[in-house]
Structures are given as C-alpha cells and as structure tokens.
Amino acid sequence: MSATTGTGATRRALGFGLRATAKVLPEHTRAHNRAMVLQHLFHAGPTSRADLARATSLTRVTISDLVSVLIAEGLVEELGVQRGGGVGKPAMLVGMRTHAFQIVAVDLSDDTVMRGAVLTLTGEAVERRCLEVDDRTGDELVDLVEEFTRGLLDAATQPVVGVGIGSPGVIDVDGRVLEAPNRRWTDLPLAALLSERLDLPVHVANDADVAALGEYTFGGAEGSMLLVAVGQGVGAGVMVDGARVHGVRHAAGELGHVTVADDGLPCACGRRGCLETLLSAPALRRAVAGLDTEAADVALAAVGRTLGVTLAPVVSALNLGEVLLSGPADLLDGALREAAEAAVVERTMPAVHTGLRVRMATLDEDVVLSGAAVLVLAAQLGIS
Amino acid sequence: MSATTGTGATRRALGFGLRATAKVLPEHTRAHNRAMVLQHLFHAGPTSRADLARATSLTRVTISDLVSVLIAEGLVEELGVQRGGGVGKPAMLVGMRTHAFQIVAVDLSDDTVMRGAVLTLTGEAVERRCLEVDDRTGDELVDLVEEFTRGLLDAATQPVVGVGIGSPGVIDVDGRVLEAPNRRWTDLPLAALLSERLDLPVHVANDADVAALGEYTFGGAEGSMLLVAVGQGVGAGVMVDGARVHGVRHAAGELGHVTVADDGLPCACGRRGCLETLLSAPALRRAVAGLDTEAADVALAAVGRTLGVTLAPVVSALNLGEVLLSGPADLLDGALREAAEAAVVERTMPAVHTGLRVRMATLDEDVVLSGAAVLVLAAQLGIS
DNA sequence: CGACCTTGGTTAAGCCGCTTTACTAACAAA
DNA sequence: TTTGTTAGTAAAGCGGCTTAACCAAGGTCG
C-alpha cells in the first residue's frame, strides 16, 4: 500500500466514543494561510512580501495575492521600501494597520465594578471606562453590560472588529454562561444575546482563561502555562501546547475550591479548606492585617507553599513551562511567589521543574482586558 | 471591514514568543477529509457512501471519489447492498479492510521482558511474542528491539502499515528518546533509527502516553482524561480535549516523582516521599505482604487516598472526565480505586467532579500494545 | 559605464479538490 | 405501469496553490 500520511485532524470528543471532525474545503486553506500571514505581521511587525513567503513557506505569488486582498480590506498597508538592503531590488514593506481598527473589551471579574476599554489591535488602550454595578444581577446585569458596551462602541474612533468579554463563571466555547452564581446567571447565552443586540461579533470567556490568553499573546508567556488569577476568589487559566484547555464540562481552571487543608476554614461553597479560603485578596489581607513585615512574609510564604504543593501535581502532569500569578502585587510578588516556586521545585522531579518559572503576570490590571481583546483577535483574524 | 473568520490555526510555541503555523495546501484538504472518512468507517463500521456524505457533510460526489481511491489502495472494500432499507435504491455498504493490513506493536515498559504483537487494524492480536531482556541496555538493547521487531514482521501475514513502540522515558514527538535511565538511553533517535533499519514507518512514544491513547481509541475513554499506569513505577498519560499532552520538555505525565509525603520513604530518585514510593506494583505488594484482607484494604485505601489528593488539583485544573488506573487489578481495583475516587470527589467542587469517574482501564495487559497500534493508525491513516 | 547578477514582485498556465447541476440506476408505493 | 425516493456517477465550474516565465530595480565587476 502507499504510505499515505493523514493529517492530524482536529478532534473533539462527542458523548461516548464518537469523534467528530469537521470537513475542510479549499477556502479553509485560504483562511488558514491568511491567518498565518496576519499572525506573522502581528508578531514580527512590517515585513516584505518576499520575507513573508520565506516565513510561511508559501510562494511569493500566493503571498502577493493574499496581501492584495488584505490591503483591499484595509487590514494591511504598504509602508515604503526597505532601505539599505543588500543586492537586488529593494523590498516593499507591508504591515498591519493596527490603529485603523479597534476592539472593545469588557472585564466583569470584579463584583462591584465593570471595567472596559477601547483598544487598538495591539492592545493599547485608547479609552477606559468604569461603571458601578450596584448589586445588579441577572437580566438587569446583562442590560447594564449592553449599555456599558454601547458607550464604549460610541467612544471608538475606528471601525470595531468585535467585542470581547471576560467574566467569572463556567462558560462554554460559544460564550454561553453555564453558571455564574454571583451574577445570578445560569445557562445564559451571553455572547449570542449581545451579538444580536449590538450587531457585532461578541466573544465571551472565563476571566482567568482570558487572562492566560492575554499573557500568552501580549505578555510573551509560553504555550504550556497556567495562570493563577487572585482577586475576590481564585481562578486559573490553562494553556497546553499553545491551546486553551476547556475540559469536559468547560470548567477547566476551577482551582479555587480544591481542598488544600484537611481541617481548614469553612468556605462559601459549603466545604472546608478550599484554596480560596487562603488564597484570595480578602483572605490574604486578613492574614497579614496588623502584622509587621517579617511576620506578614511568614504568613504569605505559608500560603505560597500551599499553592506550590497544590500546583506540583499539575505542573508534573502537564510539564508546564511557566506558572503566572496575577493579582495584587503587594501580596503576591514576594514571599508568597518565592515560597510557591520553592515548593513546586522541591516537590517535582528535575525533568519537570528545570526551566520552570513561577512569576508575576506582566499585564497587571489590564490582563483581562487584553485577553478579551485576544479573544476577538483570535476569532476574527486568527491571531493569537 | 468584512467579518472574515480565520481558522483556529494549529499553533506551537517556539522558544520565546514566536509562534509558527504550517502552511496548508489543497492536498492537505484531501488528506484531512480522507482521514475523516477512514475515521468514520473505523468507528462506525460499514457505511454507505451516501451515509458517509451525510456524516461528514461532504457531498456524495466527493465521497464517491474518495472511496474509489481508498478501494484502489486496498484499504476499503464494497460489502454488498444494505438489505431491507426503505424506499429508493438500496445502498452499497463500504467498509475498512481491517484484516488486510497489520500493525506491529512493541511494549518496552517492563524492565526484564519485552512484549510484542502483530495486530489487525482493529487491535486484535494475531501473534504474540515475548523476549527476555537479560539486562541489556543502550545500543545492545536497540539491536535487540530491532531483532525482536524483525521477528514480528516476519510473523505478519499481511502487509504491515507500520511499527509502534511504547517505551518508558521522556520521548519527543519525533520518537527520540531524550532520557530513559533504566535503558541507558540518552538522546537516542529510536524511531528514526529503526525506521531506517527496517524500512518501515516506526513510531515511538512514552508507554503511559501510549496507554492513554489506547484506552481513548479502543477502550472508549473520553477526550479529557488521565491514565495512571502502575508497574515497576508510576507514569501517567494525559489527554486534553481529544489531544495528547506533550508539555514543554516532552515530560508531561511524569507523576511518579511528585512529592506526596512530607517525610516519606527515600526514593530511587534521591528525594523522599515520591508518589512512586507508595504507588508501584512492588511498593504495594510490600505494603500488603502478610496482612489479612481487611488490613490490606486499609493499607491500599491509604495509598488510594494519597493518589486522590494528588490528582484533585489536576482534575480541577483540566476538568477531566475520567481518570483511569492501569496495572495489577488485584491491587488497584478495590479499596485503592474507591479511596482515590472518594478523595477526588471530596476535594473538588461539584462542577468539576460531577460525572467524573475513577475506573480501571479496560484493556488490561494489552494497553500499551493497543496504544502503540493507535500511534501507527493515527500517524499513517489519521485514525484515532 | 555597461553587462551581468541578484532579489522583489507580477502574470499566465496548470493541477488539485471541492461544489453544483444534471443525469442514470434501482427500488417501493400507488 | 407510473410516480416518487434514494444511491451513485458524470460534467462543468470555482477557489487556491504551484511552477514557469517575465519585468523591475538595485548592486557588482570587468
């Protein structure tokens, strides 16, 4: 027989044992290669057509064609010839028009205030807004999000590619909020709803997942990484081999309610000793309240160690390259982080922990907004 | 701008922040759709062209063309008309010729004896062989594997699609053994070497990873799952959203040397309290030696609980659907398994553990052989 | 200085792979 | 027997990439 090589088809588990793959058409080829070009321009900056061809291993002909379409769409522009090259005809640089389009991003991770921004395609904030939530929940909260988003859309000075939203809760790939107790959202198709009302592509995902995505694309994080987002609670976003992990019930990353202390404090979830009872902004502030620096560091290190102990099996199972901490730096970036790193290193084998870093996220308060932007970039342009 | 939708391009992290995607050509479209057809025939059995078209959402024309090629290659055959249908022309069933090709699989997970088999495409063993290793290591062991494989190839009664090997150690995607201390293999391109010598496609992967793959394809396991392989040590294979997890340094699944006891027994790795000091066939046998059934169950339950405590964060981070245990059933399938399941459930939130099962692997001693076969099926035919 | 070389980019022709449309084949129901 | 329904094939067309051949615009070198 001929040793024909099949593709590594993207698979998805469907119920019991049935695997579905989607058909691929010639135009998907185009979409893929187009995304590859945009991806390159996005990360490497202005590039000549010839260099694009070399980078993608497509031919100059195909690249030229592709670029001409992108120029016609306004996504790309010619930037003049590259001076000072060697022999041969000097190259014409083409680059993404990163400021000619904008993205609206909304961060719902805080219970009390929603934050939003108008961003360029490179994630620079052009306009920021905040809005008190005033204990609104359920449909009322949806209306408020819509209104808030409309305001941001009005503030946009360029065509908007789409809206990205990071929200707490369990959210499926289509942006349906399956469960977000604090918001009183259950099985709410938030993305579809807003997309309909705003007549724009809207993408919704879990805030911690989105934060991980943001760090991956804008923060330079590795493709196998876990981000621990510390706020009113704890969540995590996980990326494996460059792809977001969703899990069987879309609940991947729900680390806040793993038991970490056998006779720990009671938790809001009804059980005892959850990670969240120790590691959350309020819990940490309580833990260090009234202590001098030294004593506070001891307390923080204890929490850090617990985090490290909890993450060691995860790091081993996935052979992660990085663990990022996101949240209040005064609490996390110090004794806590160091103790967590030490514990992970101490409790894993060298093959797993060599090269591993436990570090702070680089995007600070904008992680979720940036990540929400990546959600849009990835879905609309294939960039991440 | 036009709201063009990009593809979810397959990405891979390359060093720091650089992402590479491979170009896609029209013929990749073909390969993908071809794999999809084979995949369907493999899992659903004989199917008419018209049903294949409906299942894949390709047109009957394309399916007919694809099938005719597969028939010409000998991979597929017509099986006569489907009797007793409703109105209309009765359909001609086509099916994979699962017995017209064979796969050679080798299991190197045991230190002392290598096991191998000639399998049909559905994983049925046609011939089994064993060979004492006699403390051979390094190049000598490679030669022995080659000789052993040659024997199996000679025993094959049908054309062989390829050779699959499951081996302990850290192994990269190209089948290069980066590190396998007990075999004295370091940075050994085993797959390339054997492929060259045997003039056949050879695929090599970690034994636990391969076991997970086997359970996924032949054992009906879910797409987000972790398999704990207990033998002379402990390893794990992880699948997330239907794809194998490799990790940054190809060391994903190395759970044996996670610390689980703060002042535990000394481990061969030089540290103390590794999971492997409690959970391995020898360690378990020692633990229950001389105990009556009840006392043995208490001892096994203690280990099971430790395993559950270790896995709880992993299950939460990935929202796994299943955890499988593979190894000696007399030790694992009972108090140990139940305690592990109880601990995972007890220590994770409902959204994570509802629907989760901790169960025994179904393929018993053949897991690694079956998995090695899947390695070949996936690489050569796109089936998994 | 002009011929030649090198590199960037475009045009034309061709192949591959899918779709739509239109056809034939084979059966059940009326 | 006619009609309707479903399976499968044939022909034409379109999208998307490649190769081959070309022009453009600069260096290098005799």
Automatic annotation (TrEMBL), chains A, B:
InterPro entries: ATPase_NBD (IPR043129), ROK (IPR000600), ROK_cs (IPR049874), WH-like_DNA-bd_sf (IPR036388), WH_DNA-bd_sf (IPR036390). SUPFAM superfamilies: Actin-like ATPase domain (SSF53067), Winged helix' DNA-binding domain (SSF46785). Pfam families: ROK (PF00480). It comes from the Bacteria. Belongs to the ROK (NagC/XylR) family. This is ROK family transcriptional regulator. It comes from Xylanimonas oleitrophica.
